[in-house]
Design goal:
single chain; 205 residues; alpha/beta; Rossmann fold; seven-stranded mixed beta sheet; 6 helices; 7 strands; 27% helix; globular; hydrolase; GTP binding; protein transport
């Protein structure tokens, strides 16, 4: 990676909600209907330009299974942004967001991590979580919100871009605003070796 600012983003949520598919769509513009479940931690890099600022994104994708929770402290450390994903066709994955937010608050070293709630799989018909319910949850927790589909690409690119835009606008989260101790080096954050955007603007609600 070059000398550009590197932001650490997290992908969290229950297993099978499509975190890896969203990440694959964003970083490689690809979709695999047979995407295997993440084992431990996956990690991808992506350069993006938002509002004339070009930054490197180090995006960590974690397994949703309980047995990998021992990785949590190192996973959450020094992250500036978090994408909390649920499956709009499975209510249980939505109700579990409370737990994921609590875990993020527990292990994060920052109190101003920018959070975005993403309701994935809106291309499917058997919806169990309405858009209104997702919006209400985001309002109560003061997070950003978007519904998306990794399969159709809807909302994916703009969701990540809006998250980065908010991080850039938050004093102390980007080295432009912070001290040298706030700076993130991609080499410090390599993972351990272990087996309506689109139609409407993402926003803080």
């Amino acid at each position: 990676m070059d000398g550009k600012v590197t932001l650490k983003l997290l992908m969290v949520g229950e297993t099978g909600v499509g975190k890896s598919s969203l990440l694959l769509r964003f970083t490689e513009d690809d979709f695999n209907p047979d995407q295997p479940l993440t084992i431990g931690v996956d990690y991808k890099l992506k350069e993006v330009t938002v509002d004339d600022s070009t930054v490197n994104l180090a995006i960590w994708d974690t397994a949703g299974q309980e047995r990998f929770r021992a990785l949590s402290p190192s996973f959450y450390r020094d992250a500036q942004g978090a994408v909390l994903v649920y499956d709009v066709t499975k209510l249980q994955t939505f109700t579990k967001l409370e737990t994921w937010l609590q875990e993020l608050d527990m292990y994060s070293r920052r109190n101003n991590v920018v959070k975005m709630i993403v309701g994935n799989k809106i291309d499917k018909e058997n919806r169990e979580v309405s858009r209104e319910k997702g919006l209400d949850f985001a309002r109560r927790h003061q997070t950003m919100f978007v519904e998306a589909s990794a399969k159709t690409k809807f909302g994916v690119q703009s969701a990540f871009e809006e998250l980065v835009r908010k991080i850039i606008q938050t004093p102390g989260l980007w080295e432009k605003y912070g001290t040298s101790s706030d700076r993130v080096n991609v080499h410090d954050h390599e993972p351990p070796s272990v087996p309506s955007c689109g139609g409407w603007k993402c926003r803080l609600v």
